[in-house]
C-alpha cells in the first residue's frame, strides 16, 4: 500500500462536495493520505499571528468548510462502503470559538441577543494535550480530544453540494467520538468516491451548542481509505475506542434519534444474531444515545454500544 503526502496549497483545498472538478489525487483502496488542513474558516478565525495565511476562495465551489479534496478511488463503486481509518491527528497551535453571531432559535431562546458576539482565542499545546483561553482576565484550560468534523463524499454525481449538513454519505458529522483509533464506515454514494476531509476540532462537547467547537487547523493528519464490498450500509457507522457507533441525521431530533437507534438494532443483530425485538430489549440496558450536534440544520444523534457492555 502507498502513503500519499498532500501539500496544503490553493489547489488542494475546496469548500464543497463535488465530482465536477478534477480530483487532486487518485489512490488505490488501502492507501494512506497524509495532509495538513486549514481551520474551517479558511484561516480567518481567531487573532493569533501564527495562523495559516488564508487562501482566496472561489465563488462557485468554496462557500463551505476548507476541505482537502476531492480524492478519487477508481475501485470505489456506488453501493459499496468506504472505510476511513483515523490513524494520526495533531492540532495546530491555535484555535477559536465564536458565540452570539447567529440570529437563530438557540440565541433567541437562551436570550443571547442581549450580549454581543465574542470569539475565544485558544492557545493549543499538543504536547501537554491542553488548550488555554482567557475570558475577562481569567484563564480556562481544557483537555484536547482532536477529531475531524467533516469527512464525506458528494451525495450525487452532479452539482455543487454544501459542506454544512451531515448526510448518509458523510459530511459535517461533527462527532467527538471519531478520534485516532476510529474507523468510520460511509456508504459510497458515487463511483470514484470523491472523498474530502477537514474541519479540525481540538475538542468539542456533545451538541456543539454554540455552533462551533474549538475550531483549529490540523498540523498533521493521517487517514487510510479502504473500499469494502463486504459491508452494505445506508447510514454511517463507526468503530471507535469508546465502542460501536451508529448515526442518525434529520432536521427533526426525534427522527435522527430513531435513525441512530435503527442502525444500532441492525448492528446488534449482525454482532449477536438477535432479532430486532431482542436487540431492543437487550439494548435498553447498554445503548447510550447522544446528541452529536444540533447546529448544522440537519441535526445528528449517535447511538453508542460500549465495547465492554456485553460479555
Topology at a glance:
Blueprint: E1 3-6, E2 13-14, E3 25-26, E4 31-37, E5 67-72, E6 81-91, E7 94-99, H1 105-109, E8 118-125, E9 130-135, E10 138-143, E11 147-152, E12 166-167, E13 170-172, E14 183-187, E15 195-201, E16 218-228, E17 237-239, E18 243-250, H2 253-272, H3 276-283, E19 288-293, E20 299-306
Parallel strand pairs: 1-4, 3-5
Antiparallel strand pairs: 2-5, 4-16, 5-15, 6-14, 6-16, 7-8, 8-9, 9-10, 11-13, 11-15, 12-13, 14-17, 17-18, 18-20, 19-20
Describe the structure.
This is Acetamidase/formamidase. InterPro entries: FmdA_AmdA. By secondary structure, the chain is mostly beta strands. It folds into two domains: 3-97 and 142-232, Acetamidase/Formamidase-like domains (Jelly Rolls, Sandwich), CATH 2.60.120.580; 242-306, Acetamidase/Formamidase-like domains (Endonuclease I-creI). The model has no long low-confidence stretch (mean pLDDT 93). The strands form three sheets. The chain has a nine-stranded mixed β-sheet with strand order 1-4-16-6-14-17-18-20-19. It has three helices and 20 strands. The relative contact order is 0.18. The chain is globular, with a radius of gyration of 19 Å. Helix 2 crosses helix 3.
Amino acid at each position: 500500500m502507498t502513503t500519499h503526502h498532500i501539500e496544503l496549497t490553493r489547489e488542494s483545498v475546496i469548500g464543497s462536495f463535488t465530482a465536477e472538478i478534477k480530483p487532486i489525487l487518485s489512490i488505490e483502496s488501502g492507501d494512506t493520505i497524509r495532509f495538513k488542513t486549514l481551520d474551517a474558516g479558511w484561516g480567518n478565525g481567531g487573532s493569533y499571528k501564527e495562523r495559516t495565511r488564508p487562501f482566496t476562495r472561489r465563488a462557485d465551489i468554496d462557500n463551505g468548510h476548507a476541505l482537502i479534496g476531492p480524492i478519487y478511488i477508481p475501485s470505489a463503486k456506488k453501493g459499496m462502503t468506504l472505510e476511513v481509518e483515523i490513524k494520526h491527528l495533531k492540532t495546530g497551535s491555535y484555535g477559536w470559538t465564536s458565540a452570539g453571531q447567529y440570529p437563530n432559535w438557540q440565541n433567541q431562546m437562551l436570550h443571547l441577543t442581549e450580549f454581543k458576539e465574542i470569539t475565544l482565542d485558544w492557545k493549543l499545546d499538543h504536547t501537554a494535550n491542553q488548550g488555554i483561553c482567557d475570558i475577562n482576565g481569567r484563564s480556562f484550560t481544557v483537555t484536547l480530544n482532536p477529531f475531524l468534523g467533516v469527512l464525506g463524499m458528494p451525495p450525487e454525481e452532479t452539482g455543487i453540494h454544501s459542506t454544512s449538513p451531515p448526510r448518509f454519505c458523510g459530511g459535517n458529522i461533527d462527532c467527538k467520538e471519531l478520534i485516532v483509533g476510529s474507523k468510520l464506515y460511509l456508504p459510497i454514494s458515487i463511483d470514484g468516491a470523491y472523498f474530502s476531509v477537514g474541519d479540525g476540532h481540538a475538542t468539542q462537547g456533545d451538541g456543539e451548542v454554540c455552533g462551533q467547537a474549538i475550531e483549529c487547523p490540523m498540523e498533521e493528519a493521517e487517514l487510510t481509505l479502504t473500499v469494502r464490498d463486504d459491508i452494505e450500509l445506508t447510514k454511517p457507522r463507526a468503530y471507535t475506542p469508546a465502542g460501536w457507533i451508529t448515526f442518525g441525521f434529520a432536521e427533526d431530533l426525534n427522527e435522527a434519534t430513531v435513525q441512530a437507534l435503527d442502525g444500532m438494532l441492525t448492528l446488534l443483530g449482525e454482532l449477536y444474531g438477535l432479532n430486532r425485538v431482542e436487540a431492543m430489549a437487550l439494548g435498553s440496558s447498554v445503548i447510550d444515545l447522544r446528541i452529536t450536534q444540533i447546529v448544522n440544520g440537519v441535526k445528528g444523534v449517535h447511538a453508542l454500544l460500549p465495547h465492554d457492555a456485553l460479555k
